[in-house]
TrEMBL record:
<dbReference type="Pfam" id="PF00368">
    <property type="entry name" value="HMG-CoA_red"/>
</dbReference>
<dbReference type="InterPro" id="IPR002202">
    <property type="entry name" value="HMG_CoA_Rdtase"/>
</dbReference>
<keyword id="KW-0560">Oxidoreductase</keyword>
<comment type="pathway">
    <text>Metabolic intermediate metabolism; (R)-mevalonate degradation; (S)-3-hydroxy-3-methylglutaryl-CoA from (R)-mevalonate: step 1/1.</text>
</comment>
<comment type="similarity">
    <text>Belongs to the HMG-CoA reductase family.</text>
</comment>
<dbReference type="InterPro" id="IPR009029">
    <property type="entry name" value="HMG_CoA_Rdtase_sub-bd_dom_sf"/>
</dbReference>
<keyword id="KW-0520">NAD</keyword>
<dbReference type="InterPro" id="IPR004553">
    <property type="entry name" value="HMG_CoA_Rdtase_bac-typ"/>
</dbReference>
<dbReference type="InterPro" id="IPR009023">
    <property type="entry name" value="HMG_CoA_Rdtase_NAD(P)-bd_sf"/>
</dbReference>
<dbReference type="GO" id="GO:0004420">
    <property type="term" value="F:hydroxymethylglutaryl-CoA reductase (NADPH) activity"/>
</dbReference>
<dbReference type="GO" id="GO:0140643">
    <property type="term" value="F:hydroxymethylglutaryl-CoA reductase (NADH) activity"/>
</dbReference>
<dbReference type="GO" id="GO:0015936">
    <property type="term" value="P:coenzyme A metabolic process"/>
</dbReference>
<dbReference type="InterPro" id="IPR023074">
    <property type="entry name" value="HMG_CoA_Rdtase_cat_sf"/>
</dbReference>
<protein>
    <recommendedName>
        <fullName>3-hydroxy-3-methylglutaryl coenzyme A reductase</fullName>
        <ecNumber>1.1.1.88</ecNumber>
    </recommendedName>
</protein>
Length: 432
């Protein structure tokens, strides 16, 4: 039987917790204590977090880590990462240090255009619609002036609006396809406000000229931004890749083969790209950006040619190993959570208050570094060695190990293989 309630959002926070606990959680005292122990003692800070969303009952913590020693275009960064997966920050730090000794990362922003669309239905002649659109277009731009004035002052705004005929995909379906430059803002609110104004002006004006009705279906930005593109790269002579007793040439060749496999095999490509997103999402989240938008856009880009493929590429040419990635990243360093969440502000300060373009480069590098670290492990020791070492602390915490127990066991597993059962066995021995 399901439990329903009306007016839940009107309850106080404490009433909401009581309702959830009594209806869904068996051990109500402990459950309530668990939920409330994550409240912030500073009531103003707690209220700030409560008001980010609706129906807040507590705070959900993720660790905020830092991966230092990232050299990008000659500048050194410590990159903040918010993530729960135990090996990600360690892997990023290792890759950063490795490449710092080999010339660092190079990154550049290729383009920064964002997209939004008004989707509408029209049952009539396209050529007539096109003429009307050309007549109405200046008014579309004019009517958004109150929204665009500030952005234009700073050098951004609406780049263009096109009428697109989509009737070969869906009967009577057309779009106003608009492009924007939103500078340091991710621009979602700006773009959506412009689009909603376009739709109002367009419907009114077009219906006047056409003498027939237009149905606006929706107006919304697109998270697919193939023209908001950044490139990150590393390269060095293959001999310089010599690492832990493995010859540079042999390592480089195997590494390139691993990338080639992800380029041709979608099952592998998805996991390969997931590893890249480990790095990307962690920085996107730490800097208060929308990781769902980034995920959606990046994966759409990975299938832009009709087959899902690797986001990274690698080659060896004339003895030089090059490893690179081009991905779309619509990021902001002003607006949204960036000015609100105290830890986001700290994360942006750690990065030296980057512009959106600089952040695009940092995030792309974090993704490339993560993929480098994953492929290096996969093609040499295997991934589990490193993963299980990092997972060791999770297992110890699961068994409520004391600090003294942790010290002994971590020391033991410096020279022994970590498995869940081996850790439990060592813990039991220690406790006898
Ligand atoms: C795990 O979170 C990510 C990896 O699976 C990525 C990869 O396989 O390349 C290690």
């Amino acid at each position: 039987m399901s439990t329903t309630i009306s007016g839940f959002s009107k309850l106080s926070k404490s009433e909401k917790i009581d309702w959830i606990v009594s209806n869904y959680l068996s051990n109500s005292n402990t459950a309530k204590q668990t939920i409330t122990q994550y409240f912030n003692a500073d009531s103003k800070l707690q209220q700030l977090h409560d008001e980010f969303i609706e129906n807040t009952i507590s705070n959900y913590y993720l660790p905020l880590g830092v991966a230092p020693n990232f050299e990008i275009n000659g500048k050194t960064y410590a990159i903040p990462m918010a993530i729960e997966e135990s090996s990600v920050v360690a892997a990023a730090s290792n890759a950063a240090k490795f490449w710092m000794q080999r010339g660092g990362f190079k990154a550049k922003v290729i383009s920064t255009t964002k997209i939004g669309q008004v989707h509408f239905m029209f049952d009539g002649d396209f050529e007539t619609l096109k003429k009307v659109f050309e007549t109405v277009k200046p008014k579309l731009i004019l009517d958004t002036k109150p929204i665009t004035a500030n952005m234009e002052k700073r050098g951004g705004g609406i780049l263009d609006i096109e009428l697109r005929n989509k009737t070969s995909d869906l009967n009577n379906y057309y779009q106003l396809h608009a492009t924007f430059e939103t500078l340091d803002a991710m621009g979602a609110n700006f773009i959506n406000s412009c689009l909603e104004q376009f739709s109002k002006t367009f419907k009114a004006e077009a219906e006047k000229h056409l003498n027939t009705s237009i149905e606006i279906v929706m107006s919304i930005l697109s998270n697919y931004v193939p023209d908001c593109l950044v490139r990150a790269e590393v390269s060095c002579n293959v001999e310089e890749l010599k690492h832990k007793g493995i010859e540079g040439k042999a390592f480089a060749e195997k590494f390139v083969r691993a990338v080639n496999i992800a380029e041709v095999e979608p099952h592998r490509a998805v996991t390969h790209n997931k590893g890249i997103m480990n790095g990307i999402d962690a920085v996107v989240l730490a800097t208060g950006n929308d990781f769902r938008a980034i995920e959606a856009g990046v994966h759409a880009y990975a299938i832009k040619n009709g087959k899902y493929t690797s986001l990274t590429h690698a080659k060896i040419e004339d003895g030089v190993f090059t490893f690179w990635m081009e991905i779309p990243l619509a990021l902001g360093t002003v607006g949204g959570l960036t000015g609100l969440h105290p830890l986001v502000k700290i994360a942006l300060n750690i990065l030296g208050k980057p512009s959106a373009k600089e952040l695009m480069q940092i995030v792309a590098v974090a993704g490339l570094a993560q993929n480098f670290a994953a492929l290096r492990s996969l093609t040499t020791t295997g991934i589990q060695e490193g993963h299980m070492k990092m997972h060791l602390m999770n297992i110890l915490n699961q068994f409520n190990a004391t600090n003294e127990e942790k010290e002994v066991i971590v020391n033991y597993f410096k020279t022994n293989t970590v498995t869940h059962s081996a850790v439990v066995l060592e813990l039991e021995k220690l406790r006898q």
